[in-house]
Amino acid sequence: PQPAAINYLYTEAILGAGDSANDWQELNGPEFRYGLAAASKSPGARVKWNVEGRQFTLWSPNGPEFGKAQVKVDGRVLANLDLHTAQLTDSQPVWKSPRLKDSPHAVVLTATEGLLVVDSIEVKR
After folding, report:
1. 109 in Cβ contact with 58 (< 8 Å)
2. Main-chain phi, psi angles of 103, to 5 degrees
3. For the segment 21-63, what is each residue's pLDDT rounded down to a tens digit?
4. Which of 13, 19, 35, 81 gives 47 a disulfide partner, CB atoms 3.0 to 4.6 angstroms apart?
5. 3-state secondary structure at position 11
6. What is the pLDDT at residue 78?
């Protein structure tokens, strides 16, 4: 048997943070995991997925208009990501959490420099 995997798009993360969709620009294209993602319109953006599972994988493209971000799980900083590259690259796993207790978790992605791009998160139970 395989662990169940549930994928959440950027929309759930924006709603989870209580942010307005007006603060984000929807992006469409084959470089995104499901053909769409979102980029913040201003620096310092934050998104939050409220999920239940044991392990999480963040998917994101890299590109010239994207910046750096911090990943927190349940209030603890677990990673710092640099999503800035000279060329746009297809969405790929950019961070995988350690195995955690199978319970509800808050996964927060916060821009620390430049604009934040948000694609999707895969949650395994």
Report:
1. yes
2. -160, 175
3. 899 999 999 999 999 999 999 989 999 999 999 999 999 999 9
4. 13
5. helix
6. 97
Beta strand spans in 16-75 (E): 24-28, 36-40, 46-53, 55-62, 68-73
| 11-14: long-range contacts, CB 8 A cutoff, minimum separation 24 | 11/38, 12/49, 12/50, 13/47, 13/48, 13/49, 13/109, 13/118, 13/121, 14/38, 14/47, 14/118
Cite the beta strand spans of the chain per DSSP E: 5-9, 24-28, 36-40, 46-53, 55-62, 68-73, 76-82, 89-96, 103-113, 117-118, 120-124
Query: Up-side HSE of residue 53: CA atoms within 13 Å toward CB?
Result: 23
d(CA 10, CA 14): 6
Which residue in this structure is represented by tokens 């640099």?
A: 82
